Protein: Anaerobic dehydrogenase, typically selenocysteine-containing
Organism: marine gamma proteobacterium HTCC2143
Amino acid sequence: MSQDCTVKTTCPYCGVGCGVDVIVDDNQIIAVSGDQQHPANFGKLCVKGSALHETMGQHGRLLQPQINGMTVDWPTAIETVAEKLLSIREQYGPNSIAFYLSGQLLTEDYYVANKLAKGFIGTSHVDTNSRLCMSSAVASYKRAFGADAVPCNYEDLEQCDLLVLVGSNAAWTHPVLYRRMAVAKENNPQLKIVVIDPRRTATCDLADLHLDLEPGADSFIFTGLLHYLADNKYTDTDYIADHTEGFADAVDSAEVATLAFVAAKANLEVEDLTTFYQWFASTEKAMTFYSQGINQSSTGTDKCNAIINCHLATGKLGKVGAGPFSITGQPNAMGGREVGGLANMLAAHMDYTPDNIATVSEFWNSTAVSQQVGLKAVDLFDAVADGQIKAVWIIGTNPVVSMPNADRVKAALENCDTVIVSDCIAETDTTATANILLPATGWGEKSGTVTNSERRISRQRSLLTAAGEAKHDWWILSQVGQAMGYGQAFSYSSPRDIFVEHAALSGYENSHEHKRLFNISALSHLSEPDYDQLQPIQWPVTAAKPEGTPRLFSDGLFATPSGKAQFITSVSKLPKQQLSADYPLALNTGRLRDQWHTMTRTGRASRLLDHTDQPFVAVHPATAAHYDLTDGDLAAVKTAHGTIEVVVQFDSNLKRDQLFVPIHWNQQFASNARVGTVIAPITDAVSGQPEFKFSAAALCKISATGNAVLVSRNRLMCDSFSNWSVSPLDNNQGYLYRVVVQEAFNWQEFIATKRLLERGPAQAYEHYSNVSCADHRFICYSDQQIELAIFSHVDKRQLPGRVWLQQIFSQTVKGDYWSLIAASDQADPGKQICACFNISEQRIIQAIEEGASSAVELGRQLKCGTNCGSCIPELNNLLSQTEHAID
Ligand SMILES: Nc1nc2c(c(=O)[nH]1)N[C@H]1C(S)=C(S)[C@@H](COP(=O)(O)OP(=O)(O)OC[C@H]3O[C@@H](n4cnc5c(=O)[nH]c(N)nc54)[C@H](O)[C@@H]3O)O[C@H]1N2
Ligand SMILES: Nc1nc2c(c(=O)[nH]1)N[C@H]1C(S)=C(S)[C@@H](COP(=O)(O)OP(=O)(O)OC[C@H]3O[C@@H](n4cnc5c(=O)[nH]c(N)nc54)[C@H](O)[C@@H]3O)O[C@H]1N2
Ligand code: SF4
Ligand SMILES: [Mo]
């Protein structure tokens, strides 16, 4: 009998941390919706969150432990890992072992990994993908406030009168928060929004002012703002005197940043800059909301501090509707920071000082605690490459895709003797390099806590039984800890046991006021039922603040030794690389609306690929024309580090010397689109965060004489294609391939020899051919059904589109297979804009041409934009473009 129940949990994607209501029936998720009570989202979900149930299922999961490609049982896997680590430590010392963790682990998993590595194995080399993401923001908060602490909360974004979004495409990357901003603007016509981004993004939909600055020029703008505030006496002198240090030096060094100077450096109009400066100066409730356009830079830490300086100078901090808000990317980047998962931290917001090492050693009852900071991500993989690190355990991240200089990382792992990878998915670019594979439970199976961008701790709850033999990360780590001889320290029997220990450590030797801000000691006595029922709560949670703390630094007291916030003085700089005759274009990388990172989850849901199903480089049409490229052509994007091959997508929202490539595609989804391979390993000197947002690049055309789309029930061998990408079809019916082949490609031979990896050849096929334009069409079928369809043409624009291709497998009458061949050249309905209601670009444009004049009206007619709202910026963009065209 089926049992259907609703469980409250938290979305595993972005740092907004939305509460999700999940209906489970018979160990299957049948529906997800936003949790009306959760303070992050009050019932809303974005398109990724609302497609969570479509990404589940056993297919593609890593189901059993493997050693050198052989399936083993858990006792063998645990024993092998423990023995390897012990013998390597014995021979080469603890620092020959590294851990590379992830902001997507639950706090409990993270805590155990950090404790095992730093506390008992004794290695310092424990870093995390948060290095690539938040480390500059962390370093700057620590420099300014003495602690890694986000002062603000989501309500502040609704309460402010000026919201400055810097290097954030929140419309796509933090969509529910962006909808909250949109509603705030509707409710408060005074609210002004400024977007600072070299591209015109979907986020500009809300902007009263868009500063399309020269890439990397942000610190000129904020240093200029400090100069303007000081010069025009807009500073809060009392606040500066009572609560800060270093103001005079910061202002002195900002002296050069006059309006004219900044305008020239950032390539902006003086008038626009003045407008922004004047708005900031005259608005008491001002928020600056910043993300990877700031952090992922060779001077990211200084940029974050340049922003914080302006808030300190005006006292716009620790008050309702005011503050510098670094938005976190991953669902538990915060939790990782709290347990001390970065290489320069020991544990629980404690740096490596002798006092802290003593405190932690005592608390963990260990004599092996590591004594100094370890290697940061880029250096850590370099140490793997040069053999200094002999064993690396990678948990919950895919560095072969996400690191800069990614081919070097790949080679380093391929050449390393002991690569242990814990993942939920069997085939990723990183699992391909592992000797030992450990199957981890994923979202929906595991249980624990995550902390969102506003310091709010929420529960992720277990809803389903584990797939195959997958185990929780904390369990795997604890078992290894026990097998290594640390039974006592790793005798946890549930995530709650770990959480209360973590909470206790946060309060340990932390009694005097303001010693360490991160303190959740009031949660250290939670019983199992209390933990299970834990309601979302913002840290610090202490005896004095048992209900949590919505806003920090309201009393003007900071976590620095003097109790005062620090102004940080720096010299503004542009990106390290410069454009040149060989590499004349500025390559920017970032995210798309419907994909999550390396696609191991979102790449499983067909609906999330309807918007964009292949890797691309966005190029201004004029630049494309210069390189003899048109929309849809195949192009090479080259840098001094490597080359990728992706299709050109026209985008007049970019400036002419700019390119944009999404980060998501990798070896599992495309032949040559792993953008990390072209990124130089240039990092910020303070934080070690890579400069992902700027690479000097070249673009050139790749002549493609034969293009084809294939739909197949099974995965195909792609080695005979010169370029390919793949995406899943609805309901796991099969796969859609977009490929490039030589003009004289022999499809018959391909069908006969290469076609099916998992089943025997199909029985027969229908065929049409027009050799003059390489127009070949095949429907291959078995007794039961269509197995494979191929449509090739010299001109890509003649190929059928995704929506039409999706329905091929529903054609079941054998006599009608021919009609598919005949109908394949019908018009392509364009990409899907609204993923919730499957509304294509073409239908939207038609409705606009027929008179719909607003997003609301389009929603009324077609329903688009009326569910999650993630597509509203694109609806507005289509409205303005189409109306423009009609004018
Ligand atoms: N859909 C989706 N959402 C996500 C994720 C995802 O994979 N997919 N990942 C999550 C994670 S981990 C993160 S870290 C966040 C990232 O969230 P965001 O930082 O919002 O996303 P990005 O697309 O990386 O980059 C943001 C913007 O920085 C701009 N930029 C580039 N160079 C500069 C510059 O020099 N100055 C300024 N001011 N801007 C610049 C880019 O043009 C881009 O629009 O997203 C989170 N949310
Ligand atoms: N060029 C460029 N590169 C970038 C960026 C950029 O903007 N430009 N952004 C950087 C940023 S901000 C980030 S955050 C990184 C993200 O990059 P990654 O962290 O490498 O990307 P993910 O795809 O999120 O990898 C998560 C992996 O963990 C697995 N997994 C999921 N849940 C669990 C679990 O519970 N347990 C275990 N053991 N495994 C699990 C997934 O299957 C997947 O393989 O990329 C960085 N790289
Ligand atoms: S905004 Fe979307 S991806 Fe982010 S937590 Fe909410 S539902 Fe998940
Ligand atoms: Mo991130």
User: Anything to note?
Assistant: The first strand starts at residue 4 and ends at 10. The chain has a mean pLDDT of 94.
